[in-house]
Amino acid sequence: MKRTLYKLFEPLLERISRRLANKLILLFTIIIILVVTSLTFISYGMLRKESVNSSISSTRNNLLLVGRNLESYLDGISQLSLPQISYDEFNYAILHESDDYASKMYVEDYLKNLYFSRNDLEAIYLYVIKEHKYYYVTKENYNITVRVAPHPPIENLSWYKRALASPFNRSYQSFVMERSPEESSGDYPINTEKSFMGYHRLLRSIVTREPQAVLSLYFNSSVTDEIMKDIPFNEGEHLMYVSPDNQPFVVDDREFVLKSEKAGLLEKLTPAQGGRLTWSDSGQKYLVMYDISQKEGWKLIKPIPYKQIYEAATTTRKLSYSIGLLFLMVSVILVSFTSNKITSPLKNLSLQMKRFSTGSFDAEATVEGSDEIAYLSRHFNKMVEKTNELINERYKMKIVEKNAVLKALEAEINPHFLYNALQAISTKALKNNNDDIVEMVDNLALTLRYCISGRDVVQAREELKHIERYLALQKARFGSRMQVEYAWDDSLLELRIPKLSIQTLVENCIKHALEKVSSTVTIRIEAHITPEYSVISVLDDGPGITEERLQQVISTLQIQWDDRGGGSAEEGDVESIGLKNLNTRLKLLYGDEAGLTIASNEHGTQMDMRLPRGGLGQHV
Predict the structure, then answer these.
(1) DSSP element (H, E) containing 597
(2) What are phi and psi of 278, to 5 degrees?
(3) Which residue has the higher pLDDT, 498 or 615?
(4) What is the helix (H) or strand (E) element at residue 140, kind and residue range?
(5) Can you tell me the distance from the alpha carbon of 239 to that of 300, in angstroms, rounded to the nearest whole number?
(6) Are 232 and 157 in contact (CB under 8 A)?
(7) What string of DSSP letters covers 561-590?
(8) What average pLDDT does this structure show over 148-176?
(9) So where does this one cross the membrane (predicted)?
(10) What is the spatial distance between Cα 169 and Cα 171, in angstroms, rounded to a whole number?
């Protein structure tokens, strides 16, 4: 086993042992890991202990305060159940309520006043034992009504038995847990969804001490909820309020109460435990804090998961590990920096040589000192500098060459439209002696001025104005046979395009559509945006271009600008020289992604000028 492990780690150990810097890095890393781990475990243990003590202290004080408030609340209920007037008069009224109308009204008024005295009272029942009937208070149509109903004997009800056995002549009834059919069959028709507790006061005769009646008060949880909300309650914690006989009255989770009753938790909560104990349930460990009232022994219980108590300590432990890792990284960096200080110039020189070999001609080695490495770095920098000078000279020559080609291509644009315009002006002057001649001459002058301007690239709005003047001149030649439509996206009016580019496309429509037929031809000039291109299109509904001729034009457009020979051109090449020159200008100005596309059939021809989004490239 040892041999196998040694073989696995042998290459790594050999690599580390080659240099002193690696040994120092390994040593400091081990020391820092040991120190940080030890400190983290020590601080984690201290924080856990402190978290438990803090939770015990704060929860104990909180439970004590809320427990006293709940005890005062129960005392108030006890005082409420005693007759607020002369006991003799109330006792007399109970004895004679069946045969004396005044006594009956006395009892009803007493119950009404009692109902009005508390906001948390849901119902009041007064059971007259000898008559086997009860008075009960209800709220009907916003009026408080006292009604009388017969009821079987209550001697077998569990709450009545507890009241008989109690030295205080009272008993409490909980509705937290579901009642068995035996318990609910002989009891009052109480809405247990609204009531959380029933309080039963046994009224005895002063003389004979025999039970005469039972006053039952049923309360909702509005007051207890208000009192209990003063206890901080987080997710995972539980809260219970149980009677001295371990009957739950307020709980947050019934299933948890059933588990705790099964495990005998409530029986373990005695004054001898000091108000806290540790209890486990299904792998979950709880710190159970409780307060027992001194007067009757009611228990206010709050189980808190230890996981939640230790959360702060766990978070601190993670933070300590993170800080330790940060210190480890900083230490490794410092040790590496110190150990590699001597060899760093040579590494830097090697890195710059590698960059230079891969085509990064901005590589420059740092020169430190005057030793042999500094000598090599200095001469390497001189070599890079000379290389960059040669590259820059070559690049400048290429730019000059491309600009010269651009100028030559512009000069090759076919000027035949100028002669046609002059002929149209002459014809118009002979046939019509009016002011239209002036407009045509003005358009021609502006057209000539635009053509001879020295700019290579113009805004689209300028080119469109030029096209309008150009088409006005052509309108004189073709008349109503030439129809023009525009569909230009306003966002593309500032687009920078080659000068006379749209004119080249329009000339093609005139030459291959209007001049070929005698019918009306519509020329449509439009521009729109796609995710990758700004597209300028010129369409016509003329006879179209034959498939053979279309293929010749497309193949001509694919010839690179630097592949053009100086020999004579074929007839097809001469006819498509304008399109060919425009396509070449687009690629020189915008890159290889730019260019012309042509589609044609018997219904017309469409020419698209595609410009990559983002404007002019770095090609000119």
Answers:
(1) strand 595-601
(2) -105, 130
(3) 498
(4) strand 133-140
(5) 8
(6) no
(7) GGG--SSPPPHHHHHTHHHHHHHHHHHHHH
(8) 89
(9) 24-47
(10) 7
User: Burial of 176 by CB count in 10 Å (0-12 exposed, 13-18 middle, 19+ buried)?
Assistant: middle
Confidence of residue 610 (pLDDT cuts 50, 70, 90): very high
Look at residue 426 in the predicted model and tell me its pLDDT: 57
pLDDT in tens, 573-584: 555 678 888 888
Report residue 147 as tokens: 């009604």
The rounded distance, in Å, linking the Cα atoms of 260 and 299 is 14
pLDDT digits (tens, 9 = 90+) for 348-375: 777 777 777 776 767 777 777 776 667 7
Residue 515: how many CB atoms within 10 A of its CB? 14
Range 397-435 burial, b when 16+ CB lie within 10 A, else e = eeeeebeebbeebeeebeeebeebbeebbeebeeeeeee
Distance CA 367, CA 377 (A): 6
Which long-range contacts does 35-38 make (Cβ < 8 Å, 24+ apart)? 36/320, 36/321, 36/323, 36/324, 36/325, 36/327, 36/328, 37/324
Q: Give the tokens for residue 537.
A: 């299109």
114, amino acid identity: L
CA 509 to chain CA centroid, nearest Å: 54
Task: Return the pLDDT at 431.
Answer: 65
Q: What pLDDT sits at residue 318?
A: 75
H runs (alpha helix) in 416-492: 416-431, 436-451, 460-478
Contact 215, 81 (CB under 8 A): yes
% of the chain exceeding 90 in pLDDT: 12
How far is it, in rounded angstroms, from Cα 36 to Cα 26? 16
Over residues 251-256, mean pLDDT: 86
Q: Which residue has the higher pLDDT, 2 or 307?
A: 307
Extended beta strands in 187-246, E state: 197-204, 211-219, 240-242
Q: Cα 18 vs. chain centroid, distance in angstroms? A: 50
The gap between the terminal CA atoms of the chain, to the nearest Å, is: 70
Q: Which two tokens stand for residue 580?
A: 């060919």
**Cβ(57)–Cβ(50) below 8 Å:** no
Residue 4, SS3? Answer: helix
Task: Count, in order, helices (H) and strands (E) of the chain.
Answer: 20, 18
Q: Identify the burial level of 144 via C-beta atoms within 10 angstroms of its C-beta, where 0-12 means exposed, 13-18 middle and 19 or more buried.
A: middle
Q: Which of helix, strand or coil describes residue 133?
A: strand
In total, the chain counts a number of residues equal to: 620
Tokens linked to 339: 């150990």
Q: Please, are residues 416 and 477 in contact by the beta-carbon 8 Å criterion?
A: no
Token pair belonging to 41: 């475990």
Whether the pLDDT of residue 408 is over 60: the answer is: no
State the Cα–Cα distance between residues 540 and 18, nearest whole angstrom.
79
Q: Are 436 and 428 in contact (CB under 8 A)?
A: yes
Note the pLDDT of residue 565: 44
